[in-house]
Design a protein that fits this description.
Elements: E1 2-11, E2 20-30, E3 35-39, H1 46-53, E4 61-66, E5 69-70, H2 76-83, E6 86-89, H3 101-111, H4 116-129, H5 145-157, E7 163-167, H6 175-192, E8 195-199, H7 203-209, E9 212-217, E10 220-226, H8 227-231, H9 239-242, E11 255-260, H10 270-279, E12 283-294, E13 297-307, H11 316-328, E14 332-335
Parallel strand pairs: 3-8, 3-9, 6-7, 7-8
Antiparallel strand pairs: 1-2, 1-4, 4-5, 9-10, 11-13, 11-14, 12-13
Helix pairs in contact: 3-4, 3-5, 4-5, 5-6
């Protein structure tokens, strides 16, 4: 559905300095019907990527293909027509205060010249689809933050696009409303078959709703793949972000080890780690951990406190043997320095 091939965007520096490379030779594929998260810190190139996807920026080189159409090669009327296949949802919905929810949803259809009868029919469909029945005649000031964002989503879907681009759609919402909006986005994908790209800095959003994720750093793709593959790869930069551990515990008389077991084919739960420690003559206690179920599989990072039979910290030789045993089972383990 979406293919980026060698996408590069370079901005000339003001005053004749070094050029700014916002996007650097990006190759990326987003499959049809997928919810794909794009994550990265400020300055990573996320905003420039969205502008290239919508044709607001022309790439310096490379191609941006959406549903087989090279957006980067279009101009004028052909570009405007192609944009109708792309819906946009923003962090702040930027609704027109003087218009009701229904009138805001209808606005892009008015601009496109859709006849009034068809506009009203489409708005009625969208109001029900996003769960705003009974609120369609309210103005933005009369709506909650979640309801305002539902209007924004409905507006983005008004022209029946094949792709929905969401730029930080939940960062201004409280946790409960965030979950409701993410559930709505997933339900819309399932019902309409649309492809969704979510630009976000919130890893909880990625865990909750995305099928795949891509990490941008300095305008380059650092890691990309299915959510389970990325989360269960302890060597990848996104694993610790998706499944964070709390700070190392203090006041414990034991050797403490961090264990990432998502990529193991034989050790699937934290109990398996405790059992393996026991087989090596160590008593293991879970002192901290984060466990997520992704794609029906447990992916986790846990901290184990390791002691011998007398309750003292296990020996250095015992620790090395345990870490070696974990490594043989596909678990990445590292002693925590306190």
């Amino acid at each position: 559905m979406i293919t980026l091939d060698g996408l590069t965007k370079v901005f000339p520096a003001p005053g004749g300095g070094a050029d700014v490379v916002a996007l650097d030779d990006i190759d990326l594929t987003v499959d049809a019907g997928q919810i794909h998260g794009i994550v990265g810190r400020s300055g990573a190139g996320k905003s420039t990527l969205i502008r290239c996807l919508t044709g607001l920026e022309k790439p310096t080189s490379g191609h941006v293909s959406i549903d087989g159409t090279d957006i980067a090669a279009l101009d004028g009327a052909s570009l405007r027509a192609a944009r109708r296949n792309i819906g946009m949802v923003f962090q702040h919905a930027n609704l027109l205060d003087s218009r009701t929810a229904a009138q805001n949803i209808a606005h892009p259809l008015e601009i496109a010249g859709v006849p009034r009868a068809r506009r009203e029919q489409r708005v009625a469909e969208l109001v029900e689809l996003v769960g705003l029945s009974g609120r369609e005649h309210n103005h933005p000031a009369q709506l909650s933050g979640g309801q305002v964002q539902r209007v924004g989503i409905a507006r983005g879907l008004a022209a029946e696009p094949k792709v929905l681009l969401c730029d930080e759609p939940t960062s201004a919402l409280d946790p409960s409303t965030t979950r409701q909006i993410l559930t709505l986005i997933r339900d819309l994908r399932d019902r309409l078959g649309i492809t969704v790209v979510i630009i976000t800095h919130e890893m909880s959003v990625v865990r909750e709703v995305c099928d795949a994720v891509t990490l941008l750093e300095g305008g380059r793709v650092v890691q990309s793949g299915g959510l389970l593959d990325v989360a269960s790869d302890p060597h990848g930069p996104l694993s610790s972000e998706l499944i964070p551990l709390p700070p190392a515990p203090t006041g414990i008389s034991a050797l403490v080890v961090n264990c990432d077991y998502g990529d193991s084919e034989t050790l699937r739960t934290s109990d398996d780690l405790v059992r393996l420690a026991g087989e090596r003559g160590a008593h293991a206690t879970i002192v901290a951990g984060t466990i997520e179920t992704i794609g029906g599989r447990q992916v986790g990072r846990v901290q184990l406190a390791l002691r011998n039979d007398s309750g003292a910290p296990i020996s250095r030789e015992g620790l090395d043997a345990f870490i070696h045993a974990l490594d043989a089972q596909g678990v990445v383990a590292q002693e925590v320095t306190r």
